[in-house]
Amino acid sequence: MLLVFYLVGNQRLLQFLPRIWKAKKEIAGQVAIILSVAIVWTYAEILTVAGAYDNTTQETQMNCRTDSSGLIGAAPWIKNPHPFQWGTPIFEAGDALSMMAASLVAVIESSGTFYASSKLSGAPPIPPYALTRGIGIQGIGTMIDAVFGAGNGSTASVEDAGLLGLTQVGSRRVVIVSAIFMVFLSVLGKVGAFFASIPLPIVGALHTVLFPYVASAGLQYLEFCNVNSFRSKLILGFSLFMGLSVPQYFKEYVFLSGHGPVNTGTTWFNDIVQVIFSSPPTVALIVAFFLDRTHTPGACSTWKDSGRYLKDKSDESEKTKEIYDFIISLGDMCS
């Protein structure tokens, strides 16, 4: 119910705010997400205090109550995160190989998010050196996560890319301020726990609203391909189908049997296969790349239908260099 309420509220705010406040559509998009979350979150808090979830199932209470996890009461006011707070790291070859597979999946998914972000912000296509630099910074962030015992690595957020398309705010200064804000919340335990108590249906609704912007940005890159070609239709349709069906099969197999389809005596090998084939973007990329390189690669029309000829003709403009060059001073963050 919270999911439906949020989706309806968000769409209504997007439609009626420009008329009520006589504001531009971009301004309405900037405040619609915040207002929708605040309204539904307050509604969930009222229902929790009123006891509406007291006699419901355990699953409903875990998903809808704002006090189910007890985060706010257990969190300290001041939390001082420090390196290796959970003890000395332990290195094992099998676990390292499993994490390398997870890093490969994160690189593929983050690359798609980077391309979508550049498209949604109206910037030129991201050049290879900027893409590899972003992946490298992501690796440094994952290393810092491990040092501080975060329990998970860093990756590009699809929701943030969708928020970029909704709000039309692509300033680097906003990203810097958001990063400082998150560091501030990590020190104030109560405040961080307050935001962590948001009900899961609201988080799912956020993903439902923001993900279409990222998906549509990815589909826009098909404008460089000949979508009327049978070859393009085959590669696009088959890769999307396999990217959706194979990960679902792997996840359901684990849910029903307790292990993945590949169940050998080597745990790290099982983890590698499970991680790679549980990622829809990774499976779709593998299938699309294989078909693109093997399906009539020598045909005269292949080079044009795939859009590669446009890449050969494109030159790096001064605007691209200005946007994607490495920032060496805070004054460069204005763009």
From TrEMBL:
TM region positions: 27-53, 174-196, 202-222, 234-250, 272-291
Query: Pfam families under this entry?
Result: Xan_ur_permease
* Keyword Ribosomal protein assigned: no
Q: What is its main location?
A: membrane
Q: Which compartments is it annotated to reside in?
A: Membrane
* InterPro entries attached to this UniProt entry: NCS2
- Keywords linked to the UniProt accession: Membrane, Transmembrane, Transmembrane helix
**The UniProt record lists the keyword Transmembrane:** yes
Q: How does it sit in the membrane?
A: Multi-pass membrane protein
PANTHER family, alphabetized: XANTHINE-URACIL / VITAMIN C PERMEASE FAMILY MEMBER
What family does this belong to? Belongs to the nucleobase:cation symporter-2 (NCS2) (TC 2.A.40) family.
* Protein name (Swiss-Prot/TrEMBL): Nucleobase-ascorbate transporter
